[in-house]
Amino acid sequence: MKKVAIAGATGAVGRQMLECIRERNLPVEVKLLASARSKGKVIDGLVVEELTPDSFQGVDYVLGACENDVTKRWMPWAQEAGCVVVDNSSAFRLDDNVPLVVPEINADDIDHHNGIIANPNCSTIIALVGCDALKKEFGLKRMIVTTMQAVSGAGVKGIADLENQVKGEDVPFQAFPYQIAYNLIPQIGDFDEFGISKEEWKMQNEGRKIWHEPELLVNCTCVRVPVMRSHSESITLECETEVDVARAREVLKQAAGVQLKDDPQNRVYPMPLDTTDQDDVFVGRIRKDLTDPEGKTLQVFVCGDQIRKGAATNAVQILEKLLEKAE
Amino acid sequence: MKKVAIAGATGAVGRQMLECIRERNLPVEVKLLASARSKGKVIDGLVVEELTPDSFQGVDYVLGACENDVTKRWMPWAQEAGCVVVDNSSAFRLDDNVPLVVPEINADDIDHHNGIIANPNCSTIIALVGCDALKKEFGLKRMIVTTMQAVSGAGVKGIADLENQVKGEDVPFQAFPYQIAYNLIPQIGDFDEFGISKEEWKMQNEGRKIWHEPELLVNCTCVRVPVMRSHSESITLECETEVDVARAREVLKQAAGVQLKDDPQNRVYPMPLDTTDQDDVFVGRIRKDLTDPEGKTLQVFVCGDQIRKGAATNAVQILEKLLEKAE
Fold this sequence. Notes:
- Two copies of one chain form a homodimer.
- Chain A is an alpha/beta fold.
- Chain A is 32% helix and 23% strand.
- Chain A has two domains: 2-120 and 311-326, NAD(P)-binding Rossmann-like Domain (Rossmann fold); 123-306, Dihydrodipicolinate Reductase, domain 2.
- In chain A, strands 5-2-1-6-7-8 form a six-stranded parallel beta sheet, with helices on both faces.
- In chain A, strand 1 (2-7), helix 1 and strand 2 (28-34) form a beta-alpha-beta unit.
- Chains A, B: Belongs to the aspartate-semialdehyde dehydrogenase family.
């Protein structure tokens, strides 16, 4: 039986990775790794071990759920042990030697790995899964996106901030610079000289790589919202051909990983509470942008669970593909 | 001393209108009107009277803060009594005989009233005040807007829903079809055959009238968010000329009703909690849209208090202009 280690097993994403492996009955033996602080913790019947240079001996696959700096520290140990790593940090995503994979879109890229496969940014995965069938149908030149991102994107500390603040508890903020309860914060990540944040660049940079579209343009605004764990995205799609709403619904109905939720007259549309703890991305509010005289612009609203499809589920799907190929 | 009646004085907007009149020390005598149910209630030292056909006798100005159907019922009574009405409902906004006014933008339109002046939609006021100086500087052809609207937009019932749900109280929803706590609802108003909601049409329809720009194009997505009383808007501005961020900041610094909050490196940007109970609209996250090869597109983030500048403050500013003209 193949042996899988989860590095960063005590975080929100790490815990979800274990849950996803169990739900899917993957025939693997799992080892949980985390910092010394978490050593001995028991998660779902497994004892957490301290991540050391020897942790990866005898391990076949690693699911990485650590911050960039921590990931960069243990990655050489995993590589030396011959593991294949599916890494959720952003440290290696744009590395030419590292495939960046959303299995519904570019599973074939997995074949070209050199020991590391990167899991994309959560908002990017959710947007791309929601829009991939539309891109195939109408072509896609440019996206204008406003993300409304859940606090879980900042990990368990983000969730704690929102919970504490709603309860009115006077404790220091752990994840966000400002109160997030009853508020919105239009900053996720640091800003560059153009006034664009790191998170805002990811959808263009990672989208180009995943879709193999080096010319794709994405104007992105990222906003943190007081929602627990699902991201929502309001997306304008400038396409190559004229768009058609009925056809858009048809292709989305067939799309892997997507649930069409688009009957606004009957109050059917995607909402982050409904995608919470769901693997699928919900797409709805599909309409033609009447302000484009050429009729080539489509407007959609997309929601997806940031911890599941935006992180853990996607990584475990990649692991699943690796296991299939290894058979 | 001129006599002012507030119709719908017990709602969130009506109460704020009284507060704004008092803050500004307007030299008027105020009368509070509401439905029979609220008769006898005391608000800020004034006893609420029942709104009847005789209520407007001897009244000079009416501030309307009622729903459309209620407004249509009492409007003939106010007109027969010779009152000038500043009305916050949407019933008369697009009527050719009714000026639709944001005092910072088109105060001169007040002169052409025939007894009714309409107060625009809250999101429209906030967007237009935030963007007017940019429009003057760069010209404006098209806006792509995602609004994130506070629960107060649905009145006191909207606020009650969020408060009850956060407390975990198992009471029926009063304002929204779904839970709004920890959720987003991409519906405000009913949808038409294009899948566009009434609220989403308002920014184009009202924006054209206020700005005297019959060709203005607005693609709008309206989302309800778990914020108490300030709306936020992520706005893409397609301009007529090349845009310049430094110049944008300069003109916004001079703009009436605007506070520039744009130093993202130092975590200065507009947030709805900061505009709560403020009359000014905050503008920030100003950047050039690098995905427009012509360099004519600007991206901004705008917040404003929906009950104040989005409704009561704007109406009371119009009243103030009327009083000045009557001197």
